[in-house]
What does this fold into?
Amino acid sequence: MKSIKLLGLPLLLLVFITSCSSVSVLSDYDQKVDFNVYKSYAFYKTGIDKAQISDLDKKRILRAIETEMSSRGFVKSETPDILVSIFTKEQERVDVYNNNYGWGGAWGWGYNPWAWGPGFGWGGTSVSASTQGSLYIDLIDNKTSELVWQGKGVGTLSNTKNIAKKEERIREFVSQILEQYPPNAVAAK
It folds into this structure.
């Protein structure tokens, strides 16, 4: 029984760590569209220019999209079947934790061997802040100029100075979003 508990702890820790770094993904699409006809793509510059992130992060996202699209058999073209656009949102998330493990309140006012008065003890309050980011990838039919597919990834963005980690996180976002495309293949799974 003890070995089961010892094995369970690392598994629980692994689940916790991976859940913290994961990307929550949603996608939506036009059910009347035949996605099999799309073979080529280009970036929709007008839409990408509106994304409110740094030009360097835009380049990272676009490179990750190029990698994913080519791995799915798409070819970048001057006369594309679909146009790829991106949109981003970010929201600051603040978590407040009360870590007060006090003793004083247990005896009320008066003397106790460890503290005087209510609520006195160890700990205190800690605050952590993180950035919750959303990346939208839109696929637009070039002939009709209509949105045919949209993927959205939401996750915590690390404010790291390590550029390699930042690029890895962006690739993770893009990869997990585009796993949902094409919708017919996802529905068949």
User: Anything to note?
Assistant: Residues 23-93+133-188 form a domain with the Double Stranded RNA Binding Domain fold (CATH 3.30.160.670). The radius of gyration is 24 Å.
